[in-house]
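Table S2 (continued). Query chain:
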Amino acid sequence: MRILIVGGGMGGTILANNLARRLTGELKSGKARITMLSASERHMYQPGLLYLAVGRMTPDELYRDQASLLEPGIAFHVDPVEDFQLDKNCVRTKSGKTHEYDVMVIATGSRMHPEGVPGLAENAETFYTEESALKMFKRLQAFQGGKVVICVGVPHKCPMAPLEITFMLHDYFKDRGMANKVQLHYTYPIGRVHSLENVAKWAAPEMDRLGIKYETFFNIKEVDGANKILRSEEGVDIPYDLLVTIPSHKGMEVVEKCGLGQNGWVPTDRTRLNMEGRSNVFVCGDTTNLPISKAGSTAHFEADVIGENIAAMVKVGTTVREYDGKVFCFIEAGKDRATYAMFNYENPPDPKEPTRAVHWFKMAYNKLYWVSARGLL
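Corresponding output:
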């Protein structure tokens, strides 16, 4: 069986390693073959960008060589896909090569899209790329006080990012002795401060305690950079001195260009994780259109299910497991306190009081990520 994995992020990497270990004998005998196509020879620890933006990590800590993270037996190529030809069971890459498959997994991830709001890309700071996170850190260093507005678009990668950056900015300015010179103002598109109700019930009192203002039912319409005003579709104007955004995201351009799904999100069966209408095409991580968090843990848990099912297809001819919507997210509540949210399709999260212990567990995971990417954690 020819197994093709498109995308070398967390989901694709964990899946490839999972399959390589499950199919050791089949790879040696030639019964199975695993190929990964990636857009980069480097693998980035994306959650680290949040820490880079506030000066708590450096760029070199974010990367490893992708090939070093993969099990033997995986054919790895830095040659991004430019065309999906699903009816022919093949893809065409940037180099002009064609790769045929019996089973394919699309794990191409997502991209931020601040350009969708007039004035947002030009006037707001963000942290979803190395370049933008470094730019944000330098802007924070130079900031001498005023109103910092954190505006949120949906959907976006990492469900807890809006809350985390808000609480981390509070402690950042406190540590600089600027707590009395900075007013944090948080906006969110629906009628509470987070999409997950229990997370919102925890976060709103935390914001009240810290003196962080918030505005709900605030859908970003435009940014007037000349006058430093953020405007909402609901008719609310908020002036700012520094604007930070968690912008809305789209799927990757190749997925959108090939018409595999609206805005680059591939229609995906919520339990089998196959592309709707395609039993031999699976979708992992941010690329799905599932109404669940676009998070590293989501990709991890989905990769475990897809790996077990593809291995079973090779060995016994059928899938054996379903995905239950499991997600686990740490929530940084400042520079040295954190909590977490664990949930699935049936059970909502129930975050507890933040503690130093959970924060240090999160810090340890930052280091253990590379073990996790190998599928060993």
